Amino acid sequence: MKPQDKHIGGTLNRVDGHLKVTGAATYSAEYELPGMSYAVLVGSTIAKGRIKSIDARAAERAPGVLAVITHFNSPKVPGFTPTGKDPSQPQTVGGRLKVFHDDLVRFNDQPIAVVVADTLERARFAARLVKAEYAAEKHETDMSAGLKQAFVPTQAKKNPKSPVADYVRGTADAYKTGTRRLEAEYIIPTEVHHPMELQSIIAHWEAPDRLTLYDKTQGTLATRRDFAKEWNLPEENVKVIATFVGGAFGNALHSWPHESAAIIAAKKVNRPVKLVLTREQMTTMVGYRPHTWQKIGMSASADGKITAITHEATGQTSSYEEFTESTVQQTRMMYESPNVNTRYRLAALDVSTPIWMRGPGEATGAFALESAMDEMAYLLNLDPLEFRLRNYTDKDPENGKPWSSKFLKECYQMGAERIGWNKRQLKPGSLRDGEWLVGYGMGVGTFGAHRGSSKANVRLLPNGTVVLQSAVTDIGPGTGTAMTQIAADALGLPPDKIRFEWGNSQFAQAPTQGGSAIVNTVGPAVQEACMAMKEKLRTMAGASNAAFASARKEEVVFADTYLTLNGNPGARASYADLLKQTDGGFVTVESKPNGENNQKYSMYSFSVHFAEVRVNPLTGEVRVSKLVSCADAGTIVNQKTAGNQMKGGAVGGIGMALMEAAVMDDRFGRYVTKDLADYHVPVQADAPAVDVLFVNQPDPHVNALGTKGIGEIAIIGVAPAIANAVFNATGKRIRELPITPDKLV
Amino acid sequence: MNQFQYIRPSKQQAAIEAVARDANAKFIAGGTNLVDLMKRGVMAPQKLVDINRLPLAKIEHENGGLRIGALALNSAVADDRQVRERQPLLAQAINAGASAQLRNMATTGGNMLQRTRCPYFYDTALPCNKREPGTGCGALEGINRMHAIFGFSDKCIAVHPSDMSVALVALDATVLVSGPKGDRRIPFADLHRLPGDTPEKDTTLEPGELITAVDVPDGPFTKHVSYYKVRERASYAFALVSAAVALDLDGNTIKAARLAFGGVAHKPWRLQTAEQFLVGKPATEETFRQAAAVAMQGAKAFKHNEYKLKLAPNTLIQTLKNAAAA
Ligand SMILES: Cc1cc2nc3c(=O)[nH]c(=O)nc-3n(C[C@H](O)[C@H](O)[C@H](O)COP(=O)(O)OP(=O)(O)OC[C@H]3O[C@@H](n4cnc5c(N)ncnc54)[C@H](O)[C@@H]3O)c2cc1C
Ligand code: SF4
C-alpha cells in the first residue's frame, strides 16, 4: 500500500459533516410518520408522597387531546411486574422508575401524567390544565443529611471484588500517622449533561407486538433489550433507530421514564407518539452527574514520595435505584504508594437517578486526587510536576501488572513545554498580567482502555462500494468517520468507496457508545470483517481463476469494477460476476478482546492537562487563558475528530471547574437552575484555543489497531488543573466546585 | 402556551387603547422576554398588541440630547455612531447584555421592562409574590445568591436584570411615555420601583402607557466611562453585580461623577451619595475605595448573597479604575 493510501492517522473530514451542517441529518424527533401525535409530560410538584387524585377533565376536553394517561388509567405494562408487596414499600435497589405504575412520588418533577394531542402546542396547553392533589410526605434532598446515612452499595456487599467495594493496599488510613500529611474534603455539585439536542423519542407500534422507536440513545441494543423486556416481547420485535444523536455525554446511557411514557402513550392512542423533553425536564428526567462528597488523606516523605493515600467518596443516588461509578479508581493506580485505601458510599435522596456524565466518576474523583496532589506538592515545597514524576509508576500498583502501554511521562514533557510551565512560580500570587493574577496548574486523568466484543457486517455492491453495518451509535465523536478510515485501510479503498451505516438495532451487534470503548471495540470488528470479506472474495474468484486461488489475501486489490492482484494486473474478477454467486461477499465477523492480554496487562489511557488562568483580584473572575491537553490514547485514528474530542472535553472541564452547578431548594426538593440561563455551560468566550497534543504511539495489546480511547480522558483532570492554577494565582484553595467569583472575592 | 389574541396596529393611539381597555392585554416588542414567560406559564396575556409597526425605532440627536426610540434595537443603539460618541457608557452596557442574537431582537423599551430572572418567579410550582401576590417570597429563605442587597422588602428581594438600565439611570435619562391620559416624561430613576408591599408592580407605568422613547442628555461623559459586569461566564449571563461609572476629570481631579450598580436591587441603583463624595477628589485607588464604602451604606445580605457585600464595592472600585484609565 502506498503511504498516501493510509487513512488511519489522517484527517478525514466527518463523513456525516455535510449532512449535519446542511440540516439534512435526521435526529430522533425529526422523523415524520402518518398519524403522528404529540406527547407532553406533566411532572409532580412535590418530592415525596402520594398522588391522591388527578383532575384531567379540563385537559381531556381541551382541543385536539387524544388521551391523558396517569397511573389511574395507564395500559398495563407487562414488564412492570408487581412486587407482590405493599407498593408503599419501594425497594432500595429497585429498577428503573415504573412510570404511571403507582401513586408514589419519588422525586420532584417525576412524570405523573402524559398528555397526547394532535399537535405539540395543543398537548402543551392541555398539560398545563392537569391538576394533581398530593398527600405530601417529608422528603430529604439535602446531601448533608444523606451523608449521615451513607451506605455501602449493594453491589459491593455482594461482591468484595467489585470496583466500588472497599480497597486496601498496605495499611488503611496510614496517612494519619505520617508527619507530612494533609486531609481535605472536596465537593462536586450536581451537574447536568445538557446536550444541545433535547431527549426525544418517537414510539410507533407497527403491530400489537411490534414496536419501532426513533430514540435518542447511546445504545440501540440496550434500548431494544430494555423495552422488549418491559413489554414482554421478543427482542427482534423491537426496532431502535438512532442514526444521529446531537450530543449526550452519558445521559442516553440509560432508559428513562419518558421513553416508557411515549411507548405507553402510543399503545393507548394507537398512533405514533412523539415526545420531546423540555429543557427544564432535562434536569430532572434523564440523569446527571451526582453531587459527590470526597475526602483525601495523604502523607509523604521529605523527599517527595507518597507514603499513603486514603480516598473516600459518597455519591448521591435516588431512593429507588443505586447508581455507582468509579470515583475512587484513579487513586488506586495512578501513583506509587505503599499504602492506599478507598471507600465508596452512596447517599440515597428523594431525587431522580443519576447517570454517568462524561469522564464520569473518574472525572469527579480526579478533582479530589489531583487537587490533593497539588496541595501536597505545595506542602513539600515541590513543583507539582516534579512531585508527580517522583511518584510515577512503571507498573500498575493496584495489581502489579505491567501497563499495556504508558506514555504519560512523554505527555508531561510535551504539555509542560507547550504551556510554558517553567514560568510557573512555587509561591502563589507571584505573577501578574496588568491587574490580573496569573497562575499555572496541572491535572492528570486516566481511564480504562476498555474493549468489549462486537460484530460487523460487510458486503460489496456491484459498483464497487463496500457497505458496513453496525448497531453502534455516533453521539458526536465521529465513530462513522473513524470506521470508514479503518475499513478503507483494511481494503485499500478510498474512503468514498466505503459506506459505514450505524445507529440501527437491526445492524450487526455492537456495544453502547460510552466508556471510550467504541473505536477499541468496533474498530477491530470492522477491520476483521473487511479482511474476511477480502479473503472470501478471493476464494470465490479463485474458483474459476487460478491466479486468485494461489494468491494471498494481502495481494488482493479492489479496482473500480473488478478484483485484481497486486503485481498481476492481468488477473481480473469482475464484481458483477462475483456478485452473481450466492451472497455477494457478505460477511459477518465477531471480534473479541484477547482474554490472555487482559490477564497479563493493565490497560489505561492517560492524559494531562495544563491550565494558565487569570484571576481578577478584586472581582474574583477567573479566565482560562491557556489550556494544553496531552493524551496517551494509543493510535490516533483521526487527528481531526480526536482533536475535537479533546477540545470538547477540555471545554467541558472549564464548565465543571468554573460554572456548572444544578442548585436545589431543599425545602421543596426542586431545582432552581433548570434552564440554560441559570445553568451555565461555557460559551465561546470562556474557552481559549485549546492546544491538543497526542503521543500517538500504538498500544500493542488492547487491539490490532493500537487504540486506547479518548472521550473520557479529554475531561478527566481538567477541573483540578484549573483549580490548581487558581490556587497558584491567588493562594486560595477552592475545594468545592464550581469556582465562581463569590468564592474568590 | 395559552390561547391569545394577537393584533398589530399601525397607529400608536390604537395600540394604547387596546392595552388600556383590557387588563389582560400586553404590548409586545422583540418578544424575547415576554414570549419566554408565556411559554413557562408565568404570564398569560389574553391579548398581545404588537407595536412593531409603530414608527418608534429612530435614534436622533436633538435639543442637547439623544432621543432613542422605544423600538430601536439593542444592537442598533449599541452600534450607533452618535451613541458611541456621545454616550459610550450606554453602548458598553447594552453590549454587556444577553447575546448578539438577542440584542438583534430586543428593543429599548422592552429591555428596560424585562422582568426579574428570579428562579422562583419563573417556576409556577414555587411560591412567588411577584408572580402570584400572597403566595410568599420563595427566595427570602430559599436560594438567594442572585438577590438584592439594597431596597428590598420582606415581600420580594428580586433584582432588576437589565444592563442597559444601569447606564441609563447613571446618565440621567428620561423616559417618554404616551398613555390613555396623554403624554408624560418620567425620570429614569423613577421608572422602576422598589417592591414594598406590591412586588407584582415592577414600574410606575400606568395601565396602557406605552414607552415611546428615552432621552439621554448630552454631558461631559464621553471618555472616562466604564461598564463592568461580573458574571459567571464571559458572556451571556446575568450580572452577579455590575457597575456603571462616568467621570468628568480635570487632570486627575474629579469634576463630576455618575455611578450606578446593577444586580443589587429591584431597580438600577443610582449612587448619588458616592458621586457627591467623589467631586473634587483625586482619581486615585484610595478615593475609589472610600467612595465604594460610601456606596455600600445600608446594604444588607441574605443567606447566599453575602459575597455581594464585598463584590459590589470591589466591582465599583474596578470600574472606577477602568473609567479613570479610559
Ligand atoms: C437567555 C437570555 C439572556 C439574557 N441576558 C441578558 C443580560 O445579560 N442582560 C440584559 O440586560 N438582558 C438580558 N436578557 C434580556 C433581554 O435583554 C430582554 O429579553 C430584552 O431586552 C427584552 O426586549 P424585547 O423587546 O424583546 O421585550 P419584550 O419581550 O417584547 O417585552 C418585554 C416587556 O416589555 C413590555 N414592552 C415592550 N415594549 C414596550 C413599550 N414600548 N412600552 C411599554 N411596554 C413595552 C412588554 O409588554 C413586556 O412586558 C437576556 C434574555 C435572554 C432570553
Ligand atoms: S424575590 Fe420576588 S420574584 Fe423572587 S420569589 Fe421573592 S417575590 Fe418572587
UniProtKB/TrEMBL annotation, chain A:
Q: Which domain of life is it from?
A: Bacteria
Give the Aldehyde oxidase/xanthine dehydrogenase a/b hammerhead domain ranges. Answer: 22-138
- Record's signal peptide: none
The cross-references to PANTHER family, in alphabetical order and at most eight, read: DEHYDROGENASE, XANTHINE DEHYDROGENASE
What is the name of this protein? Answer: Xanthine dehydrogenase family protein molybdopterin-binding subunit
State the organism named in the record: Hymenobacter guriensis
Automatic annotation (TrEMBL), chain B:
- Which protein is depicted? Xanthine dehydrogenase family protein subunit M
Q: Keyword annotations for this protein?
A: FAD, Flavoprotein
Q: Which PANTHER family match?
A: OXIDOREDUCTASE, XANTHINE DEHYDROGENASE SUBUNIT C-RELATED
Q: Locate the FAD-binding PCMH-type domain: which residues?
A: 1-221
The highest taxon in the source lineage is Bacteria
- Pfam families listed in its UniProt record: CO_deh_flav_C, FAD_binding_5
